[in-house]
Amino acid sequence: MHNISGGVLGGDQLAVEVNVGPGAYAQLTSTSATRLYRSLPEAPPARQITQLQVAANGLLEYVPDALIPFAGARYQQQTRIQLASGAGLFYWETVAPGRIARGELFAYDLLQLQTEIVAIDKPIAIEHIKLEPQRHKLSSLARLGPYHYFCSFYICKVGLDAARWLQLEEELGALANQLTYPDEICWGVSTLTAHGLVIRALSKQHTHLPAGLLRFWNAATQRLYNREAHPPRKIN
Predict the structure, then answer these.
(1) Whole-angstrom Cα distance, residue 50 to residue 47?
(2) Among 22, 38, 46, 54, who pairs with 12 as Cys (CB 3.0-4.6 Å)?
(3) What is the dihedral of CA 179, 236, 156, 182, to 10 degrees?
(4) At a CB cut-off of 8 Å and minimum separation 6, what does 122 contact?
């Protein structure tokens, strides 16, 4: 059993809550890309707060389409994921630079993403991203360099020992090397403090990311659950 709820907190604030019950399975995606519209100068940033909970031996696959911040957008996102013993998670976030066809390359004002993953009441991943392209150029080598798109893909299963994760890191790292073309896209894989790993990518084109994410998703699902991944039909 799983429950999904959402609501408006007031102003431009949205709350999403997902609870996956013991031994249950849920796959969530979005109907299309999330478009972040221009904010009024006098208004606070638009904000989304997402709470995801997976009970013992449950599995959540949360695989939304990309965030696309339009020119003048100001957006803050907080995502907190709580995993119980034996719980599994596949969760990715992909961020576009704007509406490229309209010449809006990094024309937004603020994009702030905060993600925390907690396993059995202990943090295993904390990620804070704050981008302000009008104040700090994202083409800096300390930020995105020559790349325009980026993504993070968290894969977790609570209770697996460190040796299993190191083995999976090695296998997915070999796949990352196969999929990396430095002039177009770069992939990397690293283990978390426990119970999982994270895959990251920087790309010049969005078209390279979905196929790569599916390759990693399928490989990890085979190793962790002895089956093929079942992506939403729209990204097959």
Answers:
(1) 10
(2) 46
(3) 20
(4) 194
| Angstrom distances, CA of residue 181 to CA of 13, 138, 184, 186, 187 | 39, 20, 5, 6, 9
As given in the structure block, the two tokens for residue 146 are 């020559």
Nearest of 219, 134, 133, 139 to residue 174 by alpha carbon: 219
Which sequence spans correspond to the domains of the chain? 2-235
DSSP string computed for 124-165: EEEEEEEE-TTTS-TTSTTTTTT--EEEEEEEEETT--HHHH
pLDDT in tens, 58-90: 999 999 999 999 999 999 999 999 999 999 999
Q: What is the largest CA-CA distance in the chain?
A: 52
Query: Hey, what long-range contacts does 163-172 have (CB within 8 A, 24 or more apart)?
Result: 165/191, 165/192, 165/194, 165/195, 165/196, 165/197, 166/191, 168/197, 168/220, 168/223, 168/224, 169/197, 171/219, 171/223, 172/197, 172/199, 172/216, 172/219, 172/220
The segments of the chain whose pLDDT lies below 70 read: 1-11, 234-236
